[in-house]
Specification:
Length: 102
Amino acid sequence: MLIRSIINLHISEKLLARIIAGSVVVAITSLIWDAWWHVAVGRDTFWEPPHLFLYFSVALACVLSIHGYLRTRKLLWRNLGIALAIIPLQLLLTNFGTACLE
């Protein structure tokens, strides 16, 4: 029921692309902020503000690209969703690798 109501949202593809692009910009900005945070504050936790902005913006971009694919069935949206899903997966693998080396 919830998925059907989300799919039936009438957002133009142009607006959808702009929101996704803005979300990616927020993600990149939050990565820069996180790097500064590590220098200024030191080691931090999972729930620090730069991390929360990063998690939310990447999740929003992934959900919206999936929405675009489910609504239009264009491969562009599916491929964008896959590419955006690689971001959190890569971060998990990088953090796991770093933890193994310590």
